[in-house]
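Key result, reporting period 2: structure in, sequence out.
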């Protein structure tokens, strides 16, 4: 290791560090949660694709503000999709992954898989690790806290959109 101080003196430090022993204490609880990679796989009310996600989102939003989808000009639709990961109700990660123009441009399954994996890579910054096996994601807590078991995991798809309506 080389350290330079403001007086331009150079110090060279050599050191060896060896750690022995076990990584985790014997009484560490093995903490993990699992979920499906696709947002419609868990209690999704008939949603089976990203097209369904888009139309359900549009219909719900428009109904809430007193409009119907047929009162809008669908060719003006611009969507920005993002993946969001929450653990125990706390937003940890949110990354954009797809831009769509019109109602037919929606992400495909591979777009989603890549986005989720990209987001999951950031979990290490929060002391979590993950494994994806098929369509199942398992998140592990690396810290082994006694009073902070993982209670919930949400991997959400979000859509920001612009749409002209009459």
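The corresponding designed sequence is given below.
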């Amino acid at each position: 290791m080389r350290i330079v101080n403001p007086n331009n003196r150079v110090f060279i430090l050599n050191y060896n560090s060896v750690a022995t022993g076990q990584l985790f204490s014997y009484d560490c609880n093995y903490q993990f949660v699992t979920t499906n990679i696709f947002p419609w796989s868990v209690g999704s009310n008939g949603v089976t694709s990203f097209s369904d996600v888009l139309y359900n989102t549009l219909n719900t939003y428009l109904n809430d503000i007193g409009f119907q989808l047929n009162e809008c000009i669908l060719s003006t639709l611009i969507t920005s999709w993002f993946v969001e990961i929450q653990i125990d109700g706390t937003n940890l990660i949110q990354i954009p992954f797809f831009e769509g123009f019109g109602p037919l441009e929606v992400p495909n399954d591979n777009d989603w898989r890549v986005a989720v994996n990209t987001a999951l890579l950031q979990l290490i910054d929060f002391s979590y690790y993950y494994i994806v096996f098929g369509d199942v994601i398992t998140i592990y807590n690396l810290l082994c806290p006694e009073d902070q078991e993982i209670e919930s995991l949400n991997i959400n798809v979000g859509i920001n959109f612009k749409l002209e309506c009459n």
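DSSP finds two helices and eight strands in the chain. The beta strands are 2-4, 10-12, 32-36, 72-87, 90-101, 128-133, 136-141, 153-165. This case is discussed further under Risks and Mitigation.
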